[in-house]
Design a protein that fits this description.
Number of helices of chain B: 18
Shape of chain A: globular
Strand content of chain A: 15-25%
Strand order of the largest sheet of chain A: 2-1-3-4-6-5-8-7
Number of domains of chain B: 4
CATH topology of the largest domain in chain B: Rossmann fold
Largest interface: A-B, 49 and 64 residues
Largest sheet of chain B: 7 strands, mixed
Oligomer: heterodimer
Helix content of chain B: 25-40%
Distance between the termini of chain A: 57 Å
CATH class of the largest domain in chain B: Alpha Beta
Number of domains of chain A: 1
Distance between the termini of chain B: 28 Å
CATH topology of chain A: Rossmann fold
Bound molecules: thiamine diphosphate, iron/sulfur cluster
CATH superfamily of the largest domain in chain B: Thiamin diphosphate (ThDP)-binding fold, Pyr/PP domains
Number of strands of chain B: 21
Number of helices of chain A: 11
Number of strands of chain A: 8
CATH superfamily of chain A: Thiamin diphosphate (ThDP)-binding fold, Pyr/PP domains
Chain lengths: ~290, ~575
């Protein structure tokens, strides 16, 4: 009897509301920061998927945006600048049951952490990576970023940036990512929808989100994006790599939505297969030592 | 050694890429299987082809502590190798050389054996690739070993390549063997025979012992990036760790390797990475993260020679300072150093245990000479190191908010794993309070640093002295040696040599270098007349560390040549210090 009861309690589905994911810590972001929109959209998506906070890990680096895990009631890993993807990869490989979501800024992911980005993509590790792309360094108070536009003036580029931009969407696609999307924190409902799809996607899912830094970026503001973004029409075929790359090339207006989505074996699946291949009954160190006798 | 029938050194030198290392390994294994103790040393150029490789094996009927100081039998396979090493051959020693590659030499005080190795391989066997097996046969015959010893190892080595290759190599082996039997008249019974072959010994090197010890210690996750001389640890683990359900990942760089390790460990797996100096340097930031966020991790640094790219294939003990102090601000870490191949097997298990129990990074300092030292060791006792588990919170008795970083007397707080119900928290490198909320108050910083450093104190008080090994009797000893890491065997041998010249020395080796077991070290120092600290680096890093941590003023003997310390030179230093 008692046993049956426990089971029924455990299988009882609790429907969590977006607010149920909010932690006691109040975000320390500037009023109006785009990251609020990202956080709220994430709450919404988590609620829609009814993610179990105890089975979910948010991994971040360093930056304003990287403070996000503290504001959510899930497990979190707030590491060092730029190392979101290796840490998230380690967590997912250690426990593939977990839903692992990496978050961070454009500096974190595309500058200091860039060495890891194409590798996470080519490995197709089953994690979601949300980059709050404000095209500037927020936490360190306004320096140029790899997604800053040519000529962009910041404190470290007073004469205007002399470097071109990285295109993270194209880079992700050509590196082997199996889900690539662009969001905008000014379109929260659509962003929540993208998050739902990204989290559900088996494989490496990049969501690059335009998330304005209202304090330091006086160019790519909410006003700037007004009339410069449009939803990707349903006629776009997200399995068409070249169509996706072309779409990723477009700016002004910027396409928002899912550019690319295909299915390939994920790293965690491959590792599970590898373990099967290596399988030997009752492995023991005793046995291994024999080779050295 | 006096009284023993067998104790000699064979040195091989030849062109890199021509199978000298595998010749050395085959010879070593063949002799060890006959029952002899072996102890090897190798050094080679960083390039795969070109330059001279040197492989030295000491063979004896008693336990060996070093690779020896004099060469008894020198096998020269190329001219450069001949010129670089001939002066090491002791008077009366034997020179065997490949007369196809090395010009004829008359050495009146030596037994000189020219063998046209290349010609035999090419003309008689039909494959130059068998050159090193021709040499193996010749050496085995010269030493007085049965040809079966060679057949056994040749079969094992070439089995994977098919029966035809095995047969070719058998022919090569016999050709070399018979050549010596037929043409050489200065044969000498180097091998005096052994009483009994102990079937329970292993013939293993430091990196292999480390990989197997780690598996025995419960390793479940390894990530690394290839770098000499640490790569073979990953190569040893890759085929076997998955059998135990574990994961081996080749990361895109060392930063990613440690990041993956920290992620896996945070999620509950025993995790380790291994690298060498350049890669270790890249890991420094995240070692601090592990300390601050209290995540267990073992970081193996197989030290190599020189700064920057330096001498990738040579040995050194030059990374001690980086291991001890390579940190911004202050954060606790444990630094350990294995003292021998056998010790490596056990100590790496302790390293994993300490990381798990104390939730901090453990740096494990091996070096090239130890990593590639193949020698005979007693078969390890698999039950010797009991498993220490990580302290987890009790899932059934959570009351109130979960304090991941609860301040405790030991400094250890229960660590929840993702998936545990009701314990969700954010691990963070930001200074935090007990509940892992970012907190910037001065009181909190003091309290939290205190908590984290108390773990080192606890480790030191409860276990520190168990990891100290003392050799000889320090009471009134003329010289007390305090050493660390791979030099232990050489030091012990030097002590025995000094003893024969009337100088009494004792030695102390702490295997945990941080936290340093100060009490027992000072006690040791107080009993001896003078303290000597020999180490294979240039600036005397350990001696300086001892001066900073203890009241001892040791005499530093620091020597960085890319080679391990030599027992003769250490003996001379012991005598010098004793007579000071
Ligand atoms: C190794 C290292 N280098 C530099 C820094 C300083 N730093 C912190 S955040 C940051 C960049 C922040 O920009 P971004 O990642 O785009 O995040 P945002 O603050 O804009 O959300 C920098 C350079 C650091 N914390 N660590
Ligand atoms: S500085 Fe910019 S990115 Fe940081 S919180 Fe403020 S608005 Fe957001």
């Amino acid at each position: 009897m008692a046993e049956v009861q426990t089971i029924s309690v455990e299988t009882q589905v609790i429907q969590r509301q977006p607010k149920d994911y909010k932690s006691d810590l109040e975000p320390i972001w500037c009023p109006g920061c785009g990251d609020y929109g990202v956080l709220n959209a994430l709450f919404k998506a988590m609620s829609q998927l009814n993610l179990d906070p105890d089975q979910t890990v948010l991994v971040s680096g360093i930056g304003c945006s990287s403070r996000l895990p503290g504001f959510v009631v899930t497990y979190g890993f707030h590491g060092v600048h730029g190392r979101v993807l290796p840490v998230a990869t380690g967590i997912k490989l250690a426990n593939p049951e977990l839903t692992v979501i990496g978050v961070g800024g454009d500096g974190d992911g595309y500058s200091i952490g860039m060495g890891h980005f194409p590798h996470a993509a080519r490995r197709n590790i089953d994690i979601t990576y949300i980059v709050m792309n404000n095209q500037i360094y927020g936490l360190t108070k306004g320096q140029t970023s790899p997604t800053s536009t040519l000529g962009f003036q910041t404190k470290t580029t007073p004469f205007g940036s002399v470097e071109g931009q990285i295109n993270p969407l194209q880079l992700a696609i050509v590196s082997g990512a199996t889900f690539v999307a662009r969001g905008y924190s000014g379109m929260p409902n659509q962003l929540a929808k993208i998050f739902v799809e990204a989290i559900q996607h088996p494989g490496f899912a990049l969501v690059d989100v335009y998330s304005p830094c209202v304090t330091f970026n006086k160019v790519q503001t909410y006003d700037f994006f007004k009339g410069r973004v449009y939803e990707i029409p349903e006629t776009h075929d997200p399995t068409d790599k070249f169509a996706a790359l072309r779409l990723a090339e477009e700016e002004d207006p910027f396409p928002i939505g899912i550019l690319y989505r295909v299915q390939h074996p994920t790293l965690d699946e491959q590792v599970a297969l590898l373990k099967q291949k290596a399988y030997t009954p009752n492995p023991s160190v005793e046995q291994l030592l024999k080779r050295y006798q | 050694m006096e009284g023993s029938r067998t104790d000699f050194v064979v040195r091989l030198a030849g062109e890199s890429g021509e199978g000298v290392l595998s010749l050395g390994e085959m010879l070593t294994t063949a002799l060890a299987r006959l029952g002899y103790e072996v102890y090897t040393f190798r050094t080679y150029p960083a390039e795969i082809k070109g330059g001279t490789v040197l492989y030295q094996v000491r063979v004896a009927d008693h336990v060996l502590l070093s690779y020896g100081s004099h060469v008894d039998v020198f096998v020269a396979l190329n001219e450069e190798g001949y010129h670089d090493n001939i002066s090491s051959l002791r008077p009366g020693g034997t020179l065997i050389y490949d007369s196809d590659n090395v010009p004829t030499h008359e050495l009146p005080d030596h037994c000189v054996i020219p063998i046209p190795i290349g010609t035999i391989a090419k003309r008689d066997i039909g494959s130059v690739l068998t050159k090193n097996v021709v040499a193996l046969g010749a050496i085995l015959r010269y030493l007085g070993a049965p040809v079966e010893a060679g057949e056994h190892i040749a079969e094992q080595t070439f089995k994977r390549k098919g029966e035809e290759v095995v047969q070719k190599n058998f022919q090569a082996l016999h050709a070399g063997y018979n050549y010596v039997a037929q043409y050489v008249d200065c044969l000498k019974p180097w091998l005096g025979g052994v009483e009994r072959v102990n079937p329970d010994r292993l013939i293993i090197n430091g990196n292999e012992a480390l990989a197997l010890g780690a598996i025995q210690g419960g390793l479940m996750f390894y990530a690394g990036y290839p770098i000499t001389p640490a790569t073979d640890i990953m190569e040893a683990l890759a085929p076997i760790l998955p059998r135990f359900g574990g994961v081996v990942m080749q990361a895109e760089d060392e930063i990613a390797a440690l990041g993956m390790v920290l992620g896996a460990s945070y999620a509950g797996k025993r995790a380790m990475t291994a690298t060498s100096g350049p890669g270790f340097s890249l890991m420094v930031e995240q070692i601090n993260l592990a300390a601050q966020a209290e995540i267990p991790a073992v970081i193996v640094d197989v030290q190599r020679g020189g700064a920057s790219t330096g001498l990738p294939t040579k040995s050194s003990q030059g990374d001690l300072n980086l291991a001890l102090y390579g940190v911004h601000n202050e954060a606790p870490r444990v630094v350990m150093a294995p003292t021998s191949v056998e010790d490596t097997f056990y100590l790496i298990q302790h390293a994993l245990n300490i990381a798990e129990r104390y939730q901090l990074p453990v740096i494990f300092l091996s070096d090239q000479s130890l990593a590639h030292r193949r020698c005979t060791i007693p078969k390890p006792d698999l039950g010797r190191v009991p498993r220490w588990e990580r302290l987890l919170p009790d899932e059934n008795s959570r009351n109130g908010e979960y304090a991941r970083y609860a301040i405790t007397e030991t400094g250890i707080s229960p660590m929840a794993l993702p998936g545990m119900r009701g314990f969700a928290y954010t691990a963070t490198g930001i200074e935090h309070n007990e509940y892992s909320d970012p907190t910037y108050t001065p009181e909190n910083l003091q309290a939290m640093k205190g908590k984290r450093f108390r773990k080192l104190q606890h480790l030191n008080e409860h276990f520190g002295e168990q990891f100290v090994r003392i050799w000889g009797d320090p009471d009134g000893a003329d010289v007390g040696i305090i050493g660390w890491g791979s030099t232990e065997g050489v030091i012990r041998e030097a002590m025995q040599m000094a003893q024969r010249e009337g100088v009494r020395a004792a030695a102390l080796y702490p295997k945990i270098l941080m936290p340093l077991p100060v009490r027992i070290i000072e006690e040791f120092a107080s009993k001896v007349k003078r303290v000597l600290v020999p180490e294979a680096n240039f600036t005397g890093e350990f001696a300086a560390y001892l001066r900073s941590q203890t009241g001892i003023q040791p005499i530093s003997y620091a020597r960085d040549t890319g080679l391990p310390l030599d027992p003769e030179e250490v003996k001379a230093e012991i005598l010098r210090v004793a007579r000071m």
